[in-house]
Amino acid sequence: MRSNGVLDARERGAMLSRLATERFDVLVIGGGITGAGAALDAASRGLRVALVEARDLASGTSSRSSKLVHGGLRYLEQFDFKLVYEALRERDLLVSRLAPHLVKPVSFLYPLYKKVVERPYVGAGLVLYDAMEGTRRPVPHHRHLTARGALKLAPALAPARLAGAMLYYDAQVDDARHTLTVARTAAAHSAVVATRVSAVELVRGSDGVRVTGARVRDEESGHEFTVAADSVVVCAGVWTDLVHELAGVRAGYRVRMSKGVHIVVPREAVQADTGMIVRTEKSVLFFIPWGERWIVGTTDTDWSGDRAEPAATEEDIDYILGAANRVLARPLTRADVIAVYAGLRPLVATDDEADPRGPKSDKGSKGGSKGSRGFKPTTKLSREHAVDVPAPGLASIAGGKFTTYRLMARDVVDAAVADFDREVPGSVTDQLPLLGADGLAAVQAGAGRLAEDYGVSRAVVEHLLGRYGTLATEVLDLIRAEPGLARPLADGYPYLRAEVVYAVTHEDALHVEDVLMRRMRLFIESADSGADVAAEVSLIMGRLLGWNRRKRAAETRRYLDLVAAEPTVPAIGPGSARDAALAGATAG
Ligand SMILES: Cc1cc2nc3c(=O)[nH]c(=O)nc-3n(C[C@H](O)[C@H](O)[C@H](O)COP(=O)(O)OP(=O)(O)OC[C@H]3O[C@@H](n4cnc5c(N)ncnc54)[C@H](O)[C@@H]3O)c2cc1C
Question: Is 35 in the pocket of ligand 1 (CB under 6 A)?
Fold first, then answer.
């Protein structure tokens, strides 16, 4: 049976009752990119699949990455050739076939400062990088640039020591939107996808050995029930060790948390027509074009604090500004910073490499990023993934990269079904375009006519195509039915009111933060984190979800509290564009 991939928040009750009453072949725990990928992989093999996510889809690491779909140039230096090779193949598959509406090529300028040594070294790396690509080559080859050529593309660079540059290509993605689209594609293959449902206990069968499902809690109502499944797949990222504890098992690998911080600055703060990558002492720093902004980062430090709310520190922000300013003619200051976000890499470690303080409770220790002295730095830990079957009926996976999620999903589902007493087909996701990808070229070619037919501007159609692919017509249908929904949600941003409606009716948005943080990215794009439009979003959502005035006010307040509690706010400091905007929004 195929459904249409609609995740309608208004039908959550029916979906929960399916979870409680049906028996599944595979229950996936975790709705980040790995879990969404595993649900899609299993469902598209004809298995009956359920996915439970404790909060919102992509609310963990999968909305807080650098948003690159890349081989990872720096991993060549670590001789991690297999990882780079696989990641580049995945990048090309996503750009050309599986998700061309979401994963788009982006160029990076690599400035060179030591003429004699650096150019042959970096050049050789890029020859290898390009050679590892598949035959399809959806992104161009690298090029050598003179210093003058580099400054033409990136006038922001300080010319003083610049000896030249390389220009190479990778790809970028809205990580949260991609995760959501993978989950919706799984739902289109009949997977039951439930958000704000936590696994609180793993259930064993009558033999007391095999894991046969999970006790789960609906976080909206507190109601608990059991989901029955032949196999449980743990895709819980940095929470993996805690889920293993629920089953009283210990996997053959451990998860070590490494925090990565990014800052967001306006496009005009750094004049360049290309992304940039610069070397730092320990790793690299990216300037990633993001609409009218730059995402600049990242850091890589041990973390042992709260898994749900990793906090950026003054030190993190100073480090990023310092590393950026080493190459910029006009330095970035804190006043340029619109937003800061932090994410946690779920790196796999052997017992020797694991955090010496051992597994922590969900809140972690207060200590944050200090400690782990004497242990391998997180920058040096492999980005490859590890799969384990710590108990019969229980498969788990961690590590890896966003870019390689499809391979990770394939591997963990293979492990989960290995002892099934029936033949399960192999993975087919390399041939399965995500929702919105099929027929994209024709819809893009007809963008002008779509704009005329729906009475909207060409820019609106292009904005929607870039976010929903061919499903853009579903958003346009909402506008046709209610033309007022064509109005922008916030001045100066491309998002429409219709997209808030769509987030509820098709994308399972249950709260204001689901819309402003992940369905659209005002939380990191706008200086006030979207606080100014929270009440409007609550109003639109409330009409669909039956919220009365009190509930609407509570939802708005919940979002404003979240923004105010955002641990990064004080880190930016008074006088920043963000603080001024936020003060205005919360005072109003
Ligand atoms: C700063 C940074 C930059 C990065 N940049 C890149 C990049 O540019 N390119 C790239 O390829 N990779 C990048 N990565 C890596 C990539 O983001 C991660 O590998 C990937 O997002 C991890 O996804 P995940 O699904 O495994 O984990 P998560 O996204 O964290 O998902 C795990 C989910 O499990 C849920 N969960 C936990 N416990 C339970 C439970 N008991 N019941 C139900 N649900 C539960 C959580 O709520 C969470 O949503 C970056 C990572 C970081 C931190």
Answer: yes
